[in-house]
Amino acid sequence: MSDKAARVIAIDGPSASGKSTVTRMTAQKLGCLYVDSGSFYRGITWKALRDGLDTADAEQVIALINRMEMTSHIQDKSVMFSIDNEEPGDQIRSQPVQEHVSDIAAVPEVRAFVVSMLRDTARFGSVAMEGRDIGTVVFPDTPYKYYLDADPEERARRRFSELADDSGYQNVEAVYASLKRRDRKDTTRTAAPLQIALGAKVIDSTAMTAEEVVDIILADIHRLEGTAA
Ligand code: CDP
Fold first, then answer.
1. Domain segments of the chain as ranges
2. Which of 17, 41, 87, 164 is most buried per CB count within 10 Å?
3. Choices 3.40.50.300, 3.10.20.740, 3.40.50.720, 3.30.70.1620: CATH for 12-214
4. Ligand 1: distance of its center to the CA of 14 in Å?
5. Helix 108-120 with 95-105: angle, nearest 10 deg
6. CA of 212 to the centre of ligand 1 (A)
């Protein structure tokens, strides 16, 4: 399938529901850019922790986003960013970032800042973007909206198997507890809680491979565009 018209593919869902793999594969199949919106929230969290800020203090976090410079660029068909000329790399997956990111993502000013950066990525062309509020807030008008879910136990197993040895998590149970904490914060927060977007296709990936999920998404895009798969 060629990348004829600019499209935004919005893929939302809870932690470790398979979004990253599926979104990357979808982007590759469509020849469009991959955007991991969570990495932006993680990047700001990484910067806040490195600057020794109290991530639960919204004032400190707002002052940080006002003084730092965050810019995006393309690398290997993905939209990446730097903060004050530094790229955080894998550090955004560390346990401290993991444990504090939901606090930071709940601050409305942080969300407004990230949402505007995410919308701006569409200037690069078609994008496949994964997150929590892509279909509800960032690109509510896109016709291509998907909501991935999976049982919490399966999500914890998936996340544990992909974590680096030095991630700080000792076992699946610790990952499960962390995911549940984040799910709770992400679904109950006032600002853009995780919700199924109006018109989104819900896909339960518990017993599916990533390829199977991607096939469903691609078939749906073809159906919406009236073209054969
Ligand atoms: O990889 P995982 O799904 O565990 O998390 P992520 O997508 O990297 O997102 C990390 C955190 O950022 C989430 O737990 C949310 O608190 C927040 N987030 C958000 O609020 N809105 C988004 N569009 C993406 C992430």
1. 12-214
2. 17
3. 3.40.50.300
4. 8
5. 100
6. 23
